[in-house]
Amino acid sequence: MEEEQLFVTIGERTSGAVKGNLFGKDCFKVEGKAFVCFFQQCMVFKLQGETKNEALSLDGSSLFDPSGKGRPMKEWIKVPYTYHQHWEKFAQEAFNYVSSSNK
Fold first, then answer.
1. Are 42 and 79 contacting, i.e. CB atoms less than 8 angstroms apart?
2. What is the pTM of this model?
């Protein structure tokens, strides 16, 4: 699956990232905390501020609701493969956010 392979490639290229699991889905973590995951052919990023707003502004992007029960996670943005050209930038921003909040 092309989408999932791109997710893995981006995660592996992110220095300091470690592959793991989040809600039973593949993810990458920094210092034990997830910053990206893969869900339904979308890459999901933990973002804040302007980068979060930018990601949400993309058509088809949404707050991540892994349960599907109307309880989205306020900092996690699901971005469809249509915008895969933004995935690496968002992944780096998510990595920076999560690694800085661990200090």
1. yes
2. 0.93
